[in-house]
Specification:
By secondary structure, this protein is an alpha/beta fold. The strands form 4 sheets. Strands 12-11-10-13-14-15-16-17 form an 8-stranded mixed β-sheet, sandwiched between helices. The protein binds 3-hydroxybutanoyl-coenzyme A.
Length: 687
């Protein structure tokens, strides 16, 4: 069956692409398009061609699922050349997303008309490749060099109505009465008919348009692109290529970027980014058949976490009751929320109207009866079992029977929290990461008695909240904090073995982590983890276990909040503090820890080994049921470099033999309890 349909409406040939869900340019679609274009070109009755897509969107790019195989003919540049050189005017009717190869197709058409809600973008760099069919070069001619380069190197989509991209479209079909695709199509046909009547439509190749190079500061642009691309080298490669080719024709320059596209497709960075793309889609896939029945939520605790959770729900359009113990704490919490929303509005992130609506969705209360009818309550109170159990007992008493009772605890045993109620099947963990309204990761904690329908509801809810959710089981720190804690343990152990604070942070920054692990500790407060660990016995087999944190806390160095932590914050730029080095050396000497020489590579490798080791245990113990959850946690919870795919992706690149050998060596040095033997072959693919 063909993926395109053609029909005549008067003298206009309408070519409809119908390849759900996103009209991706698969080899079959490219082939079907070429066949249809040949037939239409032969029809002498045709005065113009209108190209549009069925479904919710225009073409969203090449079919990424084909990227692991050899590229098959016909290739996209052939389709694009055919459209650009078509004998009659070609008009692209755009809606939904116009991305990657889709934007390249649209840019090669002679005219573009669009629904004003349309998004346009060249996301190739976020997949580790570059636009492979001359999209960047044609966009340079349509919207100017700098705007096109911004679009192609950032990978971010923009609204077609954004002023810098005005010249991309010849018309916006801004009649808001259409609500269906047929309405848009009728408007598009009308636009073409009128333009034909007026004699305004002629075939015109974008590639032949003059290039206004404008005043681009390439040096500044290169620095800016490098800053935002972080560990992804592709945006800068693309930028350099486009700059080198500025004086060339579109065809010549396109052949260079095509070559680069084909070369990059097989690179490790591109494979890692594709891995990240597909695992996000897999874990976001809709779960369950029951519709989500959550309209109103309650949040217990208006502190930093509770406030951010309330914002997260209000952002998604939910009504929120924010509950506090005292009027004073409540009004302080509500005020913080207002200030935060107003700040977003002042920065232009949301409109004043959105700001007002969202603030109005959050209502404060000090009375538990106000959460009696909510569909979901999220407790974000002080991290203490006693406090949480008493809150859950109260919620059990007041909330309607169908309410889901969630806790945002980061470490505590949810099975024990659930025991404080007579409905443990309704109790679940919703572990947000701070700041809850910004961080994408959400751990849904499936406790022993949580009902499957409750877990399903949380998974559906996560999508509405635009979170990347992973479902995990109960253990200390669940999957995410447990793995991060293991990484932290290894970092502190390396300090005790002689690595310096700046060596560690620089090595992990060089690896691509968003922040150095010790700078992170300073930011969040060294006492937080220290206090959480203090509630549990120290592992007697690990004498150095977070002893550096203990020493710093005992010295009153709690991090940024006290002006001193791993770094000294008394000046605008944090500085390395020799006192810390002395403190760490003292602890290491007291414990008799042998010293060794570290370099960037050895630090990175050991940190990664620790992540993989704990991840493997989390999988083996069934704390996560989908191994993809591991990489998602690191990418969205802890700033792991996306261009490296995540620890499990990297484990596959190392290979099982090499990993086992490295872990064996660590086991000999530190013991079986810290580096246990693992069944890596069960969940690490080997080629
Ligand atoms: N190829 C293959 N499958 C794709 C795809 C693509 N380009 N884009 C999306 N899909 C799939 C998804 O995997 C998902 O599949 P599933 O239902 O089996 O899980 C399905 O389409 C629906 O996608 P989403 O759930 O993401 O739907 P949304 O509506 O939330 O988002 C989207 C739609 C904005 C298009 C988003 O999917 C997206 O950003 N896709 C990637 C677009 C992209 O990167 N295109 C560039 C490709 S590279 C290229 O074009 C090279 C060229 O220059 C030669």
């Amino acid at each position: 069956m063909s993926l395109v349909n053609t029909r005549m409406v008067g003298q206009i040939a309408v070519l409809e692409i119908n390849s759900p869900p996103v009209n991706a340019l698969s080899v079959q679609l490219r082939s079907d398009m070429l066949k249809a274009l040949t037939t239409i070109a032969e029809n002498t009755d045709v005065a113009a061609l209108l190209l549009h897509c069925a479904g919710s969107t225009f073409i969203c790019g090449a079919d990424i699922r084909e990227f692991d195989a050899e590229p098959l003919s016909p290739h996209l540049p052939e389709v694009i050349a055919r459209l650009e050189n078509f004998p009659v005017p070609v008009v692209a009717l755009l809606h939904g997303h116009v991305l990657g190869g889709g934007l390249e197709v649209a840019a090669a058409c002679h005219y573009r008309i669009a629904d004003p809600q349309t998004n346009i973008g060249l996301p190739e760099v976020s997949l580790g490749v570059v636009p492979g069919a001359g999209g960047a070069q044609r966009m340079m001619r349509l919207v100017g060099v700098e705007n096109a380069v911004q679009l192609a190197t950032s990978g971010r989509a923009v609204k077609v109505t954004q002023p810098e991209y005005n010249a991309f479209c010849d018309a916006l079909l801004s009649d808001t009465s259409f609500s269906h695709l047929e309405g848009l199509l009728a408007l598009g046909l009308h636009w073409v008919e009128l333009a034909l009547q007026k004699g305004e439509l002629v075939p015109r190749a974008t590639a032949n348009m003059a290039l206004d190079q404008g005043e681009v500061d390439w040096e500044a642009l290169t620095a800016k692109v490098a800053r935002s691309a972080k560990s992804n080298p592709v945006p800068n490669k693309l930028l350099a290529q486009l700059q080198r080719d500025l004086c060339l024709s579109v065809q010549e320059s396109e052949s260079h970027t095509r070559h680069l596209f084909l070369e990059l497709r097989q690179s490790l960075v591109a494979k890692a980014l594709r891995h990240a793309f597909f695992l996000e889609k897999k874990l976001q896939a809709p779960r369950g058949k029951q519709p989500l029945r959550i309209d109103q939520v309650g949040v217990i605790g208006a502190g930093t976490m509770g406030g951010a959770i309330a914002i997260c729900f209000a952002d998604a359009g939910f009504k929120v009751v924010l509950l506090e113990q005292s009027e004073q704490a409540l009004s302080a919490g509500l005020e913080r929320i207002k200030v935060q929303y107003q700040g977003s509005c002042d920065k232009g992130r949301i409109t004043q109207q959105q700001c007002d609506v969202r603030i109005s969705l959050i209502n404060g209360s000090c009375d538990y009866s106000d959460v009696a009818d909510v569909d979901l309550v999220i407790e974000a109170a002080f991290e203490s079992m006693e406090v949480k159990q008493s809150i859950f007992a109260k919620l059990d008493e007041v909330c309607k029977k169908s309410s889901i009772l969630a806790t945002n605890t980061s470490y505590l045993d949810i099975n024990l929290i659930a025991q404080a109620t007579a409905r443990p099947e309704s109790v679940v963990g919703m572990h947000f990461f701070s700041p809850a309204n910004i961080m994408k990761l959400l751990e849904i904690v499936n406790a022993d008695q949580t009902a499957p329908a409750v877990v399903e509801a949380m998974q559906q809810l996560a999508k509405k909240l635009r979170k990347q959710a992973v479902t995990v089981g109960v253990c200390f720190g669940f999957a995410a904090n447990r793995m991060y804690s293991r990484y932290g343990r290894e970092i502190q152990q390396m300090l005790l073995e002689g690595a310096s604070v700046e060596q560690i942070d620089n090595a992990m920054l060089d690896f691509g982590m968003a922040m150095g692990p010790l700078a992170v500790l300073d930011l969040s407060g060294i006492d937080i983890g220290h206090n959480a660990r203090a509630q549990y016995p120290q592992p007697e087999y690990d004498p150095g276990y977070f002893k550096v944190s203990t020493a710093l806390v005992n010295a009153g160095r709690l991090g940024r909040k006290t002006g001193l932590g791993f770094y000294n914050y008394s000046t605008a730029k944090p500085t390395v503090d020799q006192e810390v080095a002395v403190l760490i050396k003292k602890v290491g000497d007291e414990l008799g820890i042998p010293q060794q020489h570290f370099n960037t590579e050895s630090i990175q490798q050991r940190a990664l080994l620790a992540m993989i080791s704990e991840a493997a245990q989390v999988i083996e113990e069934g704390i996560v049921s989908e191994k993809e959850a591991i990489d998602l946690i690191w990418l969205h919870g802890y700033g792991f470099p996306r261009a490296k795919g995540g620890p499990m992706f990297m484990a596959e690149q190392y290979g099982i033999g090499s990993l086992q050998a490295k872990m064996e060596k660590m086991r000999e040095l530190q013991g079986e309890k810290i580096w246990p033997s693992l069944e890596l072959a069960q969940y690490i693919n080997q080629d």
